[in-house]
Amino acid sequence: MMKKLTFLLFLSGICCVIISFNTHPKQKSVLRTIIIDPGHGGFDPGTTGLFSQEKNVALAISLKLGKAIQEEFPDMKIVFTRTTDIMPGNMPTKSAGLHYRAELANKSRGDLFICIHANNDGHTPGTYALHRVIGHKTVGKGKRRKRIPIYETYYVKNTRIGTGSYIWKADRNQFKGTAINQREEAGEGDLADSSNAQADSEAFDRTSPEAKIRAQLYEKKFFANSALFATLVESEFVKAGRHSDGVLQRDEGIQVLQATGMPSVLIETGFLSNKEEEEYLNSEDGQNEIVRNIVDALKRYKETLEGHTGAEPSSFQPVTTPATAGMSRNANSAKQPVARLASPRK
Ligand SMILES: [Zn+2]
Q: Which of 11, 67, 158, 206 could bond 181 through an S-S bridge, CB–CB 3.0 to 4.6 Å?
């Protein structure tokens, strides 16, 4: 019985190979549909710089990115979650908007989900006020006498700059598993490579042990590929002379990455809170350079996947950061190699 079953499997495997040779003389591309998600939109401006809003910067870069990918890879299909200044799907809340983004990505059978955002460091854009103690004075009389500090206000330039690519946290994989299963249930049998074609054609029961194992395998693959693409994007930014915070993981604010059944990366393209970087992010040259960097990364990503699908960047070790942006950091560290990806930041 077992022998017969093995033989049948073997036979159907050969059939699959023959069919795929007949219908696809060329190798089937692993990147057919790219979802581009400009962050925020409509009533949600995102972060604000001295003169610009994140939603507009993200949209401008995203539209340019879609056009550039189309020119570079005419066979790829581009799906935008929005192309105008609206909350995607004209949804009334941010969370409904996130849901819409993820659902559109899954329905469109995306092979890669790219979110475009701009960052802030938590301080007022441009320059912000700080206070420091420059001495003490004594006030009050008798028992009420006390020494109080004398403060001086001084102004600090907002120096934090740079890019960062976020991927979802591995411990949130439960979400991803659900997204993957939902996509499967929508009748999509092509999530896997051809080696899994047999399993894909079987009736899908998401509660079965097989379904769970398969979802886990996809999660691993999607996580590895997200990390790979994020690493390539950051390395292109570094080549262009940008400061890079590397590949990062974050707890909050990236639910959309967990809800998509595909590799997904959120790219923070720079800090609107820094005057110079805000100007760069709003300039034609700056936007074109960012787009060029992402397209170059996509090219390398595609080559890697097609060369040896599922390749994992061996040195990758994600960095975990809290959701809230931290203190202003030294801006002089531009052109730092992405090698720091391997050593987690404190
Ligand atoms: Zn944002």
A: 206
